């Protein structure tokens, strides 16, 4: 089952959120304090959302951080999946069922689309199974 945490629940899950997001987003240890401070502020002010996947016995299995953004300055909002982390693998049918919750949330928030970035092969595989299409590739050069 997947649920959306309310801001008051964030402190209870904070240690798991810190672990999941710094791993999923591959945050360099030197950048973690600033990253986590911004993330906590955003979650507590309901600017970002945290969804958790729980087992039937209420064991934390996975976590997703999202944010509603105006990505292309068009005035239309999109749901950005910032972080996706799983402590226990889920089968494809579970992903399909649970992703319906995220799609419903995006529709409720009047988002035009859902997008994310990932270089993780399993996430890319899941995205295609769920109907996502690749729209761009990002390249980076350190300076």
What does this structure look like?
- It is a single chain.
- With 143 residues, the protein is α+β, with helices and mostly antiparallel strands.
- The chain has one domain: Gcn5-related N-acetyltransferase (GNAT) (Aminopeptidase, 3-Layer(aba) Sandwich).
- The protein contains four helices and five strands.
- Strands 1-2-3-4-5 form a five-stranded mixed β-sheet, sandwiched between helices.
- Helix 3 links the parallel strand 4 and strand 5.
- Helix 1 crosses helix 2.
- The longest helix is centred in the C-terminal third of the chain and has 17 residues.
- The protein is globular and about 40 Å long.
- The termini are far apart.
Write a concise keyword list for the protein shown above.
143 residues, alpha+beta, Aminopeptidase, 5-stranded mixed beta sheet, 5 strands, globular
How is this fold's topology laid out?
Layout: E1 2-4, H1 10-24, H2 32-44, E2 48-54, E3 60-69, E4 78-86, H3 92-108, E5 113-116, H4 121-129
Parallel strand pairs: 4-5
Antiparallel strand pairs: 1-2, 2-3, 3-4
Structural class: alpha+beta
CATH architectural type: 3-Layer(aba) Sandwich
Query: Whole-Å distance between the termini?
Result: 43 Å
Per CATH, the superfamily is Gcn5-related N-acetyltransferase (GNAT)
Count of folded domains: 1
How would you sum up this structure in a few lines?
By secondary structure, the protein is α+β, with helices and mostly antiparallel strands. It has helices spanning 10-24, 32-44, 92-108, 121-129, and strands at residues 2-4, 48-54, 60-69, 78-86, 113-116.
């Amino acid at each position: 089952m997947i649920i959306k945490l309310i801001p008051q629940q964030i402190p209870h899950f904070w240690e798991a959120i810190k672990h999941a997001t710094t791993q999923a987003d591959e945050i360099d240890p030197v950048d973690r304090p600033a990253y986590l401070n911004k993330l906590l502020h955003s979650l507590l002010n309901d600017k970002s959302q945290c969804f958790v996947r729980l087992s039937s016995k209420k064991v934390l299995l996975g976590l997703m951080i999202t944010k509603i953004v105006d990505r292309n300055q068009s005035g239309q909002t999109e749901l950005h999946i910032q972080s996706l982390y799983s402590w226990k693998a889920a089968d494809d049918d579970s992903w399909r069922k649970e992703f319906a919750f995220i799609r419903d949330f995006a529709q409720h928030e009047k988002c035009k689309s859902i997008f994310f970035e990932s270089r993780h092969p399993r996430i890319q595989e899941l995205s295609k199974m769920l109907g996502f299409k690749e729209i761009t590739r990002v390249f980076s050069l350190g300076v």
